[in-house]
Amino acid sequence: MRLEFIGAAREVTGSAHLVQVAGRTILLDCGLFQGRRRDVAHRNRQLPIPVDQLDAVVLSHAHIDHAGRLPFLVKEGFRGDIHATAATRDLCEVMLADSAHIQQKDAEFLARRKREAADPLYTLRDVSTMLTQMRPHGYRERFEVVPGVWARFTDAGHILGSASIELEWMEGGTRRRLGFSGDIGRSGLPIIRDPEPVEQVDWLLMESTYGDRDHTDVAGAREALAQVVRETVKRGGRVFIPAFAVGRTQELVYDLHQLVHEGRIPKIPVVIDSPLASEATQVFREHTEVFDRTEALVRAHTARTEDLFAFDLLRFTPDVEDSKAMMRQPGPKVVIAASGMVESGRILHHLAHGASDPRNTILIVGFQAEHTLGRRIVERRPVLNVFGDEVPLRAQVEVLTGYSAHADRSELHAWLDAVRATSPQLADVILVHGERTAQDAFAARLTAAGYRTHVPEPGSHLVR
Question: Which own/partner pairs from 320-324 qualify as long-range (CB within 8 Å, at least 24 positions apart)?
Answer without folding.
Answer: 323/273, 323/349
